[in-house]
Amino acid sequence: MSDPNQPNMSPENAPPPGNFQQPGPPYGQQPGQPYGQQPGQPYGQPSSRVGQPGELLDRFLARLIDFAVLVVAGSIIVGFLVVSLLMGGSFGVFGMGGGNFLSSLVSSVLMAALYLGYFAYFESSRGQTLGKMVIKLETRGPDGGRPTMEQAVKRNIWVAMGILGVIPILGGLLAGVGQLVAMILIAVGINGDVAGRRGWHDKFADGTQVVKIG
Question: CA nearest 212: which of 143, 135, 146, 144?
């Protein structure tokens, strides 16, 4: 005798072969979305920022590391050279005031050359300064390769504003204000360019770009 509580499984009521209910997607997964892919993320696109334009914070940290290295190296190099210059008899030629002016002139020129040479050399030869190596960033030229020396110089010419230190009395102040204004404008440009994250210095250097590589 058939149980009245059991469903009627006569041939005409049986489901067709292979027609069964598919299990629902995992929690938080949209129907038809590949397993493990987050909602709103294009299929096959990595979730990391590798290959994407470098963000403002990353680039700031890289510059901070570079400037810390340059301050230490520059202080040692310029200190030795200026002391050697003064000990070599500059006081006797220029007098005390002349010696101070000469030491300021030499240190300003050397520091400007050191800063500009550092960034231009490393970016044109390796695409990375020491700071960018630490933060995993790379500077690329308009064609996607390493920038040329000319492009690297144009991109970093603002760091050589220390040369204004040769101007008596106000030179150091002018150099500091000029570099601060340049950095603020760079930050504003990077923050405003959502697609490429290029500052005015990138555009001045024919369209260089900083990208995340790790």
Answer: 135
- Beta carbons of 208 and 197 less than 8 angstroms apart: no
List CB contacts of 175: < 8 A, sequence separation 6 or more: 108, 161, 162, 163, 164, 165
Tokens matching residue 63: 């510059």
Closest CA to 105 of 85, 121, 125, 87: 85
Residues 84-143 pLDDT 10s: 766 665 444 434 445 567 777 888 899 999 999 999 999 999 999 999 999 999 999 999
pTM: 0.72
Token pair for 161: 């504003």
